[in-house]
Specification:
With 585 residues, the protein is of the alpha+beta class. Helices cover 39% and strands 22% of the residues. The chain is globular.
């Protein structure tokens, strides 16, 4: 891909060659030679680094290879002229701008990022609207959208790369401090904390290490965790840390951050991955409450389940209808030296029981078949096989046959369909389940980050750029999460359940609000706002008049910088063409 700006054609004696093919001339750089001793000659290795500009033979349009072989070359940060499509899509811009104003995000970012704030917000909007995070495609988004940058400038992807690499850790921490200082610290809130990891094969990133990857691809990873205010439905802060660090060991550092942000009336809603004696004691020491899921097969929980077996599973007073489960609460201690009573909420789900029993039966069947294939061999099996089977060997150490451990399997079958939530505060089983289910919002945040912001891959190669891009993603999550909540609240108030009130569908509908450049050169609103668009806009407190006002302001800004540029986008060929004329510098 050729950039849409020109640079001076480099002059390196004997290394630069211009080859003409058809109407275009391409600039090649010789970066090495392969010598063949048997033939006694060398074959040059060349790469196309640019295309000669038709208007000036001393200039060329560079490509990515130019930056690779001439890393010290000065590249323009701004396109030579502001230019736009004749049709601007303004609907999503208006809604995102409204959310930024509601949270005062622009001012908070300007305090830390200064003149880069506009481009930063443009990248954030690009991630939300296009569901993409590749910086090289940002100019395509900017071509047909209003922008937050000063004067609605379109910057090149070179500027995007430089901006990301220039954001320092101190700026990110400063923003998170400011963002959390604006929260109401007197309010009692529940924080849902969860983490995920992302595969990365880049070599120059400090936090990328081999760890316990959730997708088990065997690639190095880094971890990303988000603290989410479940009560007010707002992301609070995030952490990025090396892939070798486990969730359990990282949790205490997150608690320290909560203390630094001066949150006091806090309850943590945690997944089973954070359950440990150390974490429980640390929350107790800091006077924070918790709601935590525990695996039903853990010894502590399984003993409680077995003690209360058949005492509540069909009792209608124990039914939690919203989730189609039955629940019972009992008091107990988490460990022998626990100084406090905890509340164990035991749940039974009939459909979950059937599914888990079927899975267990299938596992046992596969284990049995595997064991049968190795009869007569000198082989040792792992702990999983030994848990369910008694393994018999002859005197020579050859495996003979396996016997199922009926008591172990029977107990595990009895535990199918049960799960447990432990709380440090007294509450009913129904209340505990509602609080825990509320953490689905943090799960949706990770799904949004990887799916709806296009961040399954980071597409950067340095620690600074990864840190900055995660920062952009965090702001995008704040804005998109607010859009999601407002649309959901509006849909609940409507008599019908329209399918255009999801975030992707709503943004697609808003993208149809367009401004068109007329013959006078001025941008005008192309048509009136539709009924669907009015419903979507009402979720944000906007109406057709607000769209008219925003369109007028966008038209004014565009008139100040309006100019057009055209460019030949024909791709170059390699150096093996047959109709070239070589010019060597």
């Amino acid at each position: 891909m050729y950039y849409d700006f020109t640079v001076k054609t480099p002059v390196v004696r004997g290394k630069i060659i211009v080859k003409k093919k058809g109407a275009a001339s391409y600039v090649l750089f010789e970066y090495g030679r392969d010598y063949f001793p048997d033939k006694r000659y060398a074959v040059p290795k060349r790469a196309i680094i640019g295309k000669i500009a038709a208007e000036d033979g001393s200039l060329m349009y560079p490509n990515e290879k130019y930056q690779e072989y001439f890393p010290d070359a000065v590249m323009p940060e701004e396109r030579p002229e502001a230019y736009r499509s004749c049709c601007l899509r303004i609907g999503s811009y208006i809604v995102i701008r409204k959310v930024l104003q509601e949270y005062d995000l622009t001012a908070l970012l300007e305090k830390r990022l200064h003149e880069d704030t506009g481009l930063f917000l443009d990248l954030m909007a690009y991630m939300i609207v296009d569901e993409e995070n590749a910086g090289q495609y940002y100019p395509d988004f900017a071509f047909c959208h209003p922008l937050f940058s000063d004067g609605m400038r379109i910057y090149s992807d070179v500027k995007v790369s430089r901006m990301l690499s220039s954001i320092r850790r101190e700026q990110i921490i400063g923003f998170l401090d400011d963002w959390n200082s604006k929260r109401d610290h007197r309010q009692r809130i529940y924080i849902s904390y969860d983490s995920t990891n992302k595969n990365c094969q880049t070599g120059d990133v400090d936090i990328v290490e081999f760890g316990k990857a959730k997708d088990e691809k065997g690639l190095p990873v880094f971890n990303l965790a988000i603290a989410f205010d479940k009560t007010n439905r707002i992301p609070l802060f995030y952490e990025e840390y090396p892939g070798s660090i486990t969730d359990v060991s990282q949790f205490t550092f997150m608690v320290d951050k909560v203390k630094e942000y001066r949150y006091k009336k806090i309850g943590f809603v945690l997944d089973r991955g954070y359950f440990s004696k150390g974490n429980i004691q640390y929350m107790d020491a800091n006077r924070y409450t918790f709601i935590i899921m525990v695996k039903g097969c853990r010894d502590l929980v399984s003993s409680l389940v077995l003690e209360n077996l058949h005492t509540f599973e069909t009792d209608r007073d124990c039914s939690i209808r919203a989730y189609r489960v039955y629940g019972k609460t009992v008091k107990g201690r988490l460990y022998e030296d626990d100084a406090k009573d905890r509340y164990f909420h035991i749940y039974f789900n009939a459909s979950k029981q059937a599914a888990e029993r079927e899975q267990l039966e299938q596992r046992l069947e596969k284990f049995g078949q595997f064991l049968g294939k190795h009869t007569g061999e000198e082989i040792r099996f792992g702990a999983t096989y030994q848990k369910y089977f008694k393994l018999n060997y002859d005197r020579q150490g050859r495996f003979l046959y396996a016997e199922e451990k009926s008591d172990v399997i029977q107990q595990e079958l009895e535990l199918c369909g049960y799960f447990c939530i432990i709380t440090s505060e007294k509450m009913t089983a129904g209340e505990a389940l509602v609080h825990y289910k509320g953490r689905d919002m943090s799960e949706k945040l990770f799904k949004t980050d990887k799916t709806f912001i296009g961040s399954r891959s980071m597409r950067v190669q340095t620690s600074e750029s990864i840190s900055a891009k995660i920062f952009v993603e965090f702001i995008a999550l704040i804005v998109r999460n607010r859009i999601y909540n407002l649309l959901k609240e509006t849909m609940l108030r409507l008599d019908a359940k329209p399918n255009y009130m999801t975030v992707p569908a709503a943004l697609r509908e808003l993208e149809k609000i367009e401004m068109v450049r007329r013959s006078s050169g001025q941008y005008r609103l192309d048509h009136a706002v539709t009924k669907r668009q009015k419903v979507i806009l009402s979720a944000f407190g906007l109406d057709a008049d607000d769209v008219q006002k925003e369109a007028a302001e966008i038209g004014r800004l565009m008139a100040e910088r309006q100019s057009l540029i055209t460019m030949d986008t024909e791709e170059g060929d390699d150096e093996d063409g047959t109709d070239e004329i070589d010019t060597v510098y």
